[in-house]
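To whoever is on call:

I kicked off a structure prediction for a single chain this morning and the downstream step that reads the tokens threw a length-mismatch warning. I double-checked the sequence; it's 417 residues and nothing unusual in it as far as I can see. Pasting both halves so you can look.
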Amino acid sequence: MNIKNKSFTLIEILVAITIIAIISGLIIVSLNGASSASHNAKRKTDIDALRSVLLLYGLENGSYPTQTLCNIGQDCDDLDSALIPDYFSSLPLDPVSGYYTYDSDGTDFTISTVLSNSYTYSYSSLTGFSNTSPPEYASTCAAATIPGVIQCTETYDGSYVINKFTLLGTVTGTTNWEVPAGVTSVEYLVVAGGGGGGGHSSNSAGGGGGAGGFLTASGFSVSGAVSVTVGAGGAGGLDGYLGSQGENSIFSTITAIGGGRGGINGTSGGVGGSGGGGNSRMSPLTGGGGTAGQGRNGGNGTSSTGYGSGGGGGAGQLGGTAVAGQAGKGGDGLPSSITGGSPVTYAGGGGGGVYSGAVRGLGGSGGGGNGGPYASPYDGSPGTNNLGGGGGGAGYHTAGDGGKGGSGVVIIRYLHP
């Protein structure tokens, strides 16, 4: 019996390949849909878990953790310390973006996430759950985010859109923001990174770090791609060393200057957006100068008994000059309502540390860190991230490090086109 070899024709092969491609496409779509549904289910479960815990926390403590709009797991430091470990071993994270947002004035709170269909799913202690459709225009905020570097978060205030740029890490980040169609001018707030507090040095305590420069205006013309840089806070001075100046924040042609570092023995406070405070006891005691229109000078230290260092300057107030028995307070920052709702104060100076017998200087309102005491752990407190606060100066005893400056922020506000 003869057996004939039968080969597939070219048409048959092409038909088979087409069928396989269609089936593969259907499988991929199905898997993607299942993955999106799974991610959304986790997001809603996480939001509900956070809601339940925060409501319990409020009942037990009389208020909620206060935190201006932040990313949970990245820069919600007050929320982390309030809920871990008594309520969560670790806070839940979004399965894709890695974060949920939290905002609270202490009386009310809102937690939110963006679903796979771009709807915003949130819970407000005032209004309950909501699932809000995306705006009907081409927002460019998400495209400006660089994972691990810089984050653009979009919120709304009536007819206004707010794009807030913050750092995701500890290093200065730069991105491009594409101006949305129909937008020709914006209001901006640009705050630089705060200066680091001075470290303990031989026979003296460190001066407070100056706040990052503060610049704000409305009616600023924009078009095309606009560069945005958010400055990191300056490093705090380690035991026996100077800290560093904060990094500049930039929006288009607008540059806010980083805060000056606090002074130590032999070196006066640094110049910057706001000036760093002078050290205690040992000359030079002088605070550094601030930048006109952006911040104020740092305060001087004192050589009088009960030695204290000067406070770093703030955007709205001179750094406090130390007197016998009292280190200088950090200068207060300035308020802004650019994000809507209650004003937020930015760019406070760090408080001065103390050498002996004196009361440490408190940080200025707007994120300034407290100065270090003449007792363990001696270290100055860090400035608050996203506010551009200066770090507190180190106290003196046998050791002490200055506090790190807080990172800056760039916020853009414009009418919905």
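Update from on-call: the warning came from a stale cache, not from the record. Cleared it. Sanity check on the structure: Residues 138-417 form one domain.
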